Amino acid sequence: MTVVSDSSPLITLSKLGCLELLQHLYQTIAITPEVYHEVVVAGAGLKGAAEVAASKWIRVMPIQHPAGLVAIQLRFGLGLGELSAIMLAVELNADLRNLLSDLRRAYRELLSAGAYLDRGILENSLKTLNLPPL
């Protein structure tokens, strides 16, 4: 099974003291150098930095075409960590897709719960997947 993560699950699970759950579930996960930098280097001293740096089961894997990251970032407005994780997941044909039966409902629930999400990005992802808007 191929699993790719961006920084949010790593940091959140570290804050909860549960980062090892990922290892128990997936044995190995892949992150990009951009995600590693965001969590370990830029986040030095914060929860998640030391845990991720010490985790031998987290593999840092670069994307094949990093030159396109900035152009894609300008187009979609996501951070380099999120974009690189998405690109790596596509390149590796990562697993765990289509697990939500109703993506729109999940987005609405996240927004209702107060999650910090850009509504435009959510709408764009629904449009890209040929789903109705929120």
What's the layout of helices and strands?
Blueprint lengths: L6 H9 L4 H7 L2 E3 L1 H9 L7 H6 L3 E3 L8 H8 L3 H13 L10 H10 L6 H10 L6
Helix pairs in contact: 3-6
Description:
It is a single chain. The protein is mainly alpha-helical and 134 residues long. The model has no long low-confidence stretch (mean pLDDT 88). The chain has a two-stranded parallel ribbon with strand order 1-2. It has helices at residues 7-15, 20-26, 33-41, 49-54, 69-76, 80-92, 103-112, 119-128; strands at residues 29-31, 58-60. The chain is globular, with a radius of gyration of 15 Å. The protein folds into two domains: 7-92, no CATH class; 100-134, no CATH class. Helix 3 (33-41) runs antiparallel to helix 6. The N and C termini lie far apart (32 Å). The protein is 54% helix and 4% strand. It has eight helices and two strands.
Strand content: under 5%
Amino-to-carboxy terminus distance: 32 Å
Overall body shape: globular
Put simply, the count of helices is: 8
Residue runs with pLDDT of under 50 for 5 or more positions: none
Average pLDDT figure:
88
The overall number of domains is 2
Structural class: mainly alpha
The number of strands is 2
